[in-house]
Amino acid sequence: MTSENVDRRGFLKRAGLLGAAAAAGGPVLGARPAEASGIELDIDLGLLFGRERYQWLAGDHHIHTQYSYDAMYTVDRIVGGGRRNGADWMVITDHGHATHEKSSVESTSKDVLAAQRKYRDTLLWQGMEWNVPGAEHATLFFQAGANQAAKLREFERNFDWRLTGTEAGTPANEAKALAAIRWLVEQERTGQIHAPVVLINHPLRNGRVSPHELRALRDAAPGIVIGMEGAPGAQADGFPVPLGNGQGHRGGYGNSPGANSWAGFPAEAYRTYGGFDWSVAKVGGLWDSMLAEGKPWWITSNSDVHYGRGDTLVRPQVPDGWYDGTGKYPDPIETGVKQFFPPYADFYPAEFSRTYVGATRRSYEGVLEGLRAGRVWVNHGGLVDALEVGARGGWGDTATLGGRLRVRRGDSVTVVVSARLASQPNGGGSIPRLARLDLISGPVTGKCDPDTVSAPGTRVVDSFEPRWAPGRHVTFRHTFRNVREPFYVRVRGTDGKRHADGGIEPIADVVGQANPYEDMWCYANPIFVDVR
Fold this sequence. Notes:
CATH architecture of the largest domain: Alpha-Beta Barrel
Radius of gyration: 22 Å
Structural class: alpha+beta
Distance between the termini: 33 Å
CATH class of the largest domain: Alpha Beta
Number of domains: 2
Low-confidence stretches: 1-42
Number of helices: 13
Strand content: 25-35%
């Protein structure tokens, strides 16, 4: 592996970060150059990253088909497309809806089983996009064998706000959402279902899931409600003319507060930043405030595909009420003409957004274990081919993404970040260039007010600018010396094309001018450091 640290101090000085870190009383960036240099030979990279244990499997947990009231693809078509784009695992998540519960679930099950037989090297689940009472949407999936359809319908019938009239953001409806989570817990405990997973979708698109709801859902079942979409789907919605309509919002984040929105979110929370949700993109924001509690809360990315940008398929014209009567649209038809305008605002699974899961084996159980453990990083536009993060304590213990490293007070902790630079052109027609990796750290301060949205102690503690060459490995390290209190670290990377003036933070995507290939980021889940 090649070790690089190109003009790190000069870059940070230009960005105004060197003085800011000193003023904050934290580690002065660049004050000890030896602490952010090449890897020492005594660090076992295989052990540190789990390279001998983990396969990094790319996937997508938010996918729609002709069984959704606003989509068109057959299960076979969308799974085949995801497979061609390199997806190892996928979850079919059609919208909760009275017609879906009545007419669609069993038919979807048959199509999923057929796709599983056809694409045997692809791990495929049937789930649903749950309309969460008192909030908005979430991915839900589990395994139930021959009872899969029946259990999905039972959940949908009893706990989806479209079927239960519990949409409004009231305490009673929030309690209904918690009752749904308790149902999943009990169903798993009694062996009715296996390994349920819930991920909050596009969390701040409409501001309808409050910080206290996120925390309550997480705390009700931390092994089930494991995180949220750090970046939403519909990443192609902001393409400018002539490849778009010049009016779309990347990720579909073009909304403003409504009757059911939480009043504490600022106006900027309703936009994406480099394609990522404000809760994640803002250093010291909502995601960091949850990590500062020391509790697992993971991020993912996905396609949320309804209509793939540039596809030549169209949904046939049908009479009004067709879906309500059948629970399914007719198979799409071929036109030979590429479609770029609404509603064609999505990418196919794994075409642009990928969620990489560190699995001990290529299997359903392997992916589930990796997701629940937080061994996850997300990538846009193939910005990097691979990303690994590990931490090592003074006694040689190690941890990787989603893990906990336990050290003694006064020990040193070394964080190692390794990336393999992109080697192939992406859908934008060029090989992406990673411009910078940022190491972000914040103190773990414990339980907080449930509606907290900030973590003032979190900041970028180090940045690295690799020299670019296709397919090259670059590796960096940063050492925290004389550790006194618990903290966490996380990593992000960028192509460096759009930043806040005079700084390095992502900026809001511009309406109708947000080519996703011109502002790409990758994010990794945290590593916690516990001090004893």
